[in-house]
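Two proteins were folded this term; both appear here.
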Amino acid sequence: MGIENLFTFMVTAFFFIITPGIDTIFVLNKSIGQGRKSGIYATLGINAGVLIHTLFAAMGFSVLIAKSALVFTVIKYVGAIYLIYLGFLKLRDRKDFLPIRDGNQVREKGKNDFWSGFLTNTFNPKVALFFLAFFPQFIDPAQIENPMPFILLGFTYALIGIVWFLILTFFASVFSQRIMANPSASVRMNKLSGFVFILMGLK
C-alpha cells in the first residue's frame, strides 16, 4: 500500500501522542471536570480532527498551508481565538463542572465536547505541518503523490490516539466524582482550566 516501516511509524506516533500538549490538556480537563463521557466525546472529536488533517495532507492542502504565510497565519489565529474563547467561557461559567442528570442535557453536552475537541484540533495548523513532515518518512517515494498511504497512516495515527486518550480518560475521570461533589472545587477547576486555555491560545 505504499507504506514503509509501519511498526516504526506506530511506535513513533505513540510517543508523539503521549507527549503532553493541547489535546492532552483538553481531554484531561473534560475527564476530570465533567466525567468519563465528556472525556470520551472530547477524544472522538480530537481524533476526528486528526482525520481532517489526514485528508488535507492526502489532498495536498497541507502543502498550501506550509507554503502560504497568509493561510497559515489565518488558521493559526482562528485556532488561538477559539482557545481563548473557550477559556473565557470557563472563567465565567460557575456550573460547568456540576453533575448533569437530564438525558437530553447529557447528549447536548456530549455534542459540545465533541465539537470543541474537533475544532481545537482542526484549527491547529501545527498538526497539519507535523503530518506533512512526519508521514512522508514512512511512504514509498514512488507513492508520495498517492493519497492512500496518507489516509492509512492517518487512520492508524487516529486509532492510536483514541486508545491512548480513552486510557487517559478512564484514569482521569476517577477524580471527577470528588470534584462534582464539592461545588467550591468545581468553581476553582473552572477558573484553572479557563486560565490554561487562555494561556494556550496566547502561546
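Next, the second protein.
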Amino acid sequence: MTTRHVTVGVEGTLIAVRALDRAAEEAVLRGALLDIVYAVPDLDEAGPVVASAAARVHERHPGLPVTASAFEGGPVQALVQHGRDAELTVVGTRGPGGVAGLLFGSVSLRLAARTRGPLFVVRGNHRSARRGEVLFGMESDADADAATYAFAEAARRGVRLSVLDAAAARRPHHRP
C-alpha cells in the first residue's frame, strides 16, 4: 500500500525554501506525508541541505510526518521517481513569470513533460500574499479527470485556472 505523500524538490536556494514551505502546507492540508528530495551529483554533499530542509519543516509543522533523502542524479529523474504516486509534486522556479517564464527550459518544464500527477510550481524568490494560479496542460479529451482536478484545485484556492493546449505547445510553429 502506498503512503499518501507530497513530494518536493530542494537544492539549498531561497526559491527551493519557498517551494518547501508551500509543499509542507499542502501536505498538512491533505493529511499526507512530506517527501523531501535533493538530487545531487555526489551524495557526500547532500547532508546539510537535507537536514536543514527537514529541520525547517519539523519546526514549522511539528506533527507533519517527513521523509528526506538525497538522490544521486538529476532533479527531474529524482522527482519523477519519488513523485510517481504522490498526490502532488512541488518545485520552485526562477522563471520571470507567466507561462513563458514557467516553460522556458526549466526543471519545471521537463518535469511537467514527464510527471504523471499534479505538479505545483512555486515561482520567484520572495514571499507573496497572492496565491497565483492553477495551470492545466491539456493534451486531449482523455484529460477529463485531470481537468476536473485542476478546476477543483483552482476553486479550493480561490485562484484563476489557466488552460494550456499542451499538444499545440509541442508542435513546431511554421510560418509561410
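The two ends are 54 Å apart (CA to CA). Residues 5-126 form a domain with the Rossmann fold fold (CATH 3.40.50.620). These notes refer to the second protein only.
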